[in-house]
Amino acid sequence: MTSKATGTHWPAEFRSALEGFCRYLTAERGRSEHTVRAYESDVSKLLDYAAASGAGSLQDLDLGVLRGWLGELSSGGQARATLARRAATARSFSNWALREELISENPALRLKAPKKEKTLPGVLRSSQLNELFKTLEAAAAEGDPVALRNRAMVELLYATGIRVGELTGLDVDDLDPDRRTLTVLGKGNKERTVPYGLPAALAVDDWLRRGRPGLATGDSGPALFLGRRGGRVNQRQVRSVVAGLLDTVPDTAATGPHALRHSAATHLLDGGADLRAVQEILGHSSLATTQLYTHVSVDRLRQSYSQAHPRA
Length: 312
Known about the structure:
- The protein has 312 residues and is mainly α.
- It has two domains: 12-99; 159-306, hpI Integrase, Chain A (Orthogonal Bundle).
- Helix content is 55%, strand content 4%.
- The chain has 13 helices and three strands; from the N terminus they run H-H-H-H-H-H-H-E-E-E-H-H-H-H-H-H.
- The chain has a three-stranded antiparallel β-sheet with strand order 1-2-3.
- Strand 2 (181-185) and strand 3 (191-195) form a beta hairpin.
- Belongs to the 'phage' integrase family. XerC subfamily.
- Residues 12-98 form the Core-binding (CB) domain.
- Forms a cyclic heterotetrameric complex composed of two molecules of XerC and two molecules of XerD.
- This is Tyrosine recombinase XerC.
């Protein structure tokens, strides 16, 4: 039932509601541009379905419409994680519409969707990471600015476990080389301080001394990492760099920058780091999110049990 031209057949209030919801996400919830675009896309698809189903106003956006929308997505082969995310979007939009008195009751209160599977992308083994960093070091040895940048970016992603968007938002002044920490602006505009180790420090220093000056222009500003034309590096460029590197790593399900974040968290826990410390480093608002990593560390728990329990 989805329209080929999104919004072309919507009732007049649909578009103003979508624009108002996006303003709310930006101004009141402090969501990132990337997150707002994702919400906007999902709500647009929902409103497309509602209009094609005969809804003439937001009051017609009832539980049957929401269930029908998710049912169509499920029949189309959408993954459980996607269905769960879109159900959550429908709930957020309905909550907002009720608060704004655009609807008289919330149709999403009884909406159910498949629970998102608690799975994590592949985690790289220490040996695999060692080989990966050897490759980066060999390329950077030639002094090419882009190679120096790539080495520094990957070292920092793994050393800190920060998100790609957090990496690309870093400025030079966000680094404290003496303390080997960086200040990062995370989800919800929450600021946190994250430590990093000596290998990352050396790689970043090398980039700042030998690499960044070769790419910087008058318009580069304070951005820590730059693209080939001197502008701030974007998330797509970072993902491309990391994906290309991981393609060369045999025997791994790791596919992108988030795998470096997951690897960092898993290796911290394997090394005995406190769960709440890892939560703080990663910037998780809920400890339950950080606890997902503990299932990857079963081997560490078994080893601890074997060493500590008298009847092991």
